[in-house]
Each structure stands twice: as structure tokens, then as C-alpha cells.
Design goal:
This protein is mainly alpha-helical and 121 residues long. The chain folds into two domains: 13-80, Arc Repressor Mutant, subunit A (Orthogonal Bundle); 82-117, no CATH class. It has helices at 13-26, 39-46, 50-63, 80-99, 104-117; strands spanning 66-69, 73-76. It has a two-stranded antiparallel sheet with strand order 1-2. A hairpin with a 3-residue loop joins strand 1 and strand 2. Helix 1 crosses helix 3 (50-63) and helix 2 (39-46) crosses helix 3 (50-63).
């Protein structure tokens, strides 16, 4: 697993860390039961503040993707499985958007808007 951040991005660093973990879960690089690096170790490797990593881990915990266990650290939950199952669908949607010359920001905005207003089960 390789956590990626872009210091020049407008996105907060904690959000980039969380996004990177989500992406690894979606592609199957992270699976339920896998452990993430200790927050202190990851902060040092990325050159960021410990609280940045802790905030990302807490966000992922709040989403149900991560379980924080004393003595075991951060462990990926079963919530990673549906993300991995959606990977091919998402890749196809991104490819279709590119064919239509839509930017990734526009695509993301469309997905968010539809998700906000579509309350089907």
C-alpha cells in the first residue's frame, strides 16, 4: 500500500490520506483485515503532522471503512468489499466521461448531486 499526497493540492492533507486509503480499498489493494501503518509511522513517512494522519484515520473510522483497535492499530473493515465491487463500474463511468470530454471535477459534482437527490434504496 502506498499512501499518496500532493502538497500543492487544494485538498486538505488529511482528506488526501483518507482518499488514498479509499482508493486502495476500491482497487482491492487493501482488503478486510489488512492493517494500515501506525499513525506515527505514516506521518513520519509522509512528512506530515501526526494529527493529520489521526484525523484521516478517524474520518475513515466514522465512514466504517476502518476499525481502530488498541494494540492492533488501524484495520480495514468489511466495508472495503463493496468499494472493490464498484471499482469496475466507476472505471467505466470515468472512461465514458472522458469520451464526453467531461472533467473529473464535473463528473464528481454530477455524482454528488445525483446522490444528494436520489433516495432510492
Amino acid at each position: 500500500m502506498l499512501i499518496r499526497i500532493d502538497p500543492d493540492s487544494d485538498a486538505p492533507l488529511f482528506a488526501q490520506v483518507a482518499s488514498s486509503v479509499r482508493a486502495d480499498a476500491a482497487t482491492g489493494r487493501l482488503r478486510p483485515g489488512d492493517r494500515l501503518p501506525a499513525a506515527r509511522e505514516l506521518a513520519s513517512a509522509l512528512g506530515v503532522n501526526l494529527h493529520t494522519v489521526l484525523r484521516a484515520y478517524q474520518q475513515l473510522r466514522d465512514e466504517g471503512l476502518l476499525e481502530l483497535r488498541r494494540g492492533r492499530g488501524a484495520v480495514i473493515t468489511d466495508a472495503a468489499t463493496p468499494l472493490a465491487q464498484l471499482h469496475d463500474d466507476i472505471a467505466a463511468l470515468v472512461a465514458r466521461a472522458r469520451l464526453l470530454d467531461l472533467s473529473t471535477d464535473t463528473l464528481a459534482d454530477l455524482v454528488k448531486e445525483i446522490a444528494r437527490h436520489d433516495h432510492r434504496p
